[in-house]
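Q: A reviewer asked whether we had any structural model of the full assembly, not just the individual parts. We don't, so I'm hoping you can provide one. Inputs are below.
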Amino acid sequence: MTKTASPSYQPLYTQIKTLLVNRLASNEWPPGSALPSEMALAAAYDVSQGTVRKALTAMEKEHLVERRQGRGTFAARHSQQRSLFQFFHLIGQNDERQLPDSRVISCASVKATATECVALDLEQGAAVTRIKRVRELDGRPVISELLSVPTALFPGLERRPIEQVPNTLYEFFQAEYGVMVVHASERLRAVSASAIDAELLHVDIGTPLLAIDRRALNIENRPVEWRMSHCHTADHYYFNELD
Amino acid sequence: MTKTASPSYQPLYTQIKTLLVNRLASNEWPPGSALPSEMALAAAYDVSQGTVRKALTAMEKEHLVERRQGRGTFAARHSQQRSLFQFFHLIGQNDERQLPDSRVISCASVKATATECVALDLEQGAAVTRIKRVRELDGRPVISELLSVPTALFPGLERRPIEQVPNTLYEFFQAEYGVMVVHASERLRAVSASAIDAELLHVDIGTPLLAIDRRALNIENRPVEWRMSHCHTADHYYFNELD
DNA sequence: TGTAATATGTCTTATATAAGACTGTCAACT
DNA sequence: AGTTGACAGTCTTATATAAGACATATTACA
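A: Here is a predicted structure for the entire assembly that you could use as a starting point for your response.
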């Protein structure tokens, strides 16, 4: 690849990275499948192996690929591990990470509210599928959750029996609908338990709850899910590392 | 540097990194000062420039050093920028990052409670300096904060006039006491406003507040501060990126 | 007081060697 | 005959080194 002397200069490895990310986004390499070897990619793009490696290393840092010495480079896949460490921050008193069980209460496709349209970047009047569920840790209800996804991305989801909607949603989204959540941003607040929260979580109305407002994005940075979780933080806490 | 064929093999660049971090921790290069050039370090350790670079790059990722092309590598310093982006996660409705003003209410050295001893890894009976303050955003009190530091690390802090204790504490700790906070972990919960919170934050008793329990660590991973913040999240929220 | 040359940094790219993982072959054993 | 284990060959990524490009600050000079 000849270096571009353009005014908006970008290092070679970032250009390669962009090309690879685009191919990944186009689903050329489905989650879990192997990418070509560094040598093959280097030959294809006419750069050195080291340059490809730098691009791949950067992609690994963003959890877009997984690399294993002697095996190869693989398109990232959603695993329970990843759900646990990247996307689930509620920890028990004993400092143990643990995925909650989940019980789906309802699942239906409806016309999106204005708020949902903004959060999911949808046209006014578009359809969303809304899931309401309770999540349990150590057998006790801890999270009351309401989440919305664009129906267009998940056709037929609302017609599935609710016991068929599994616990770790992002694995399910990827495996069944080819929608890959790679990134999310959360906003946290303290709120009072509503009557509904109170019933679902077995707490008094007005109990302080931790409200987590999450927007999940795919590899193209388009929102694919919006969820609001209300967490009872008597026996659990939200953990965050600052580094 | 000859490679060690020891059973617990570690790559060269991680060994170099450990050596550099140790020198940094021993305050050989005070915050803001320049480290020797990559070439000089490479010569000193008898490795190649690229190996030193890999060590330095890893250190930069951890905010231990700052690197600028054409200038050099510098020991990290606490800046307002860093406080804002690394350590302060409370954002306004308009999505603007903004550092709060702070009003110190009290500052005194006392015998540590059992909880403080655990949080700060202190001997029983050790002294801690406790600061109580309120932080304001847009002129309104938003955070009621109680923080403890080992008195041994910050001698004389309790005798300073409280208006001399500045807003951004970590800069102050570094400049005045040589204590550098490089890392922190937080636990978040929802709690009810106590009578004290209510008075300080101008809210009703029982209002849900976001409680942030933070332990701050220095470069040697030893705790140097423990703080408990109670945040009024009506007009602000705690922001977190999941990636 | 500007301005160009120069010195000294880091950044980018390229190349060589090491280490890990799988596959097939072949001999030894059951 | 069938199974097991050692081992070499070959593919992969990981690590180490080196050289040229780029960025910045300083110095020399008009």
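A: Points you may want to mention in the reply: Chain A is about 25% helix and 35% strand. Residues 9, 37-39, 49, 53, 56, 67-73 of chain A lie near DNA strand D (CB under 10 Å from a C1').
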